[in-house]
Amino acid sequence: MTTETTQHRRDTALGVLLAAALGAVPVGIATALVGGVVDGRPGALGAAMGAGLALTVLASGSFAVHVVARLMPSASLLVALLTYGLQLTVLTGALASFDRSGALGDELAAGWLAAGVVAVTAAWTVGQIILGARDRVLLYDLPEPASPNSHEAGAR
Question: Does the residue 31 lie in any domain?
Answer without folding.
Answer: yes
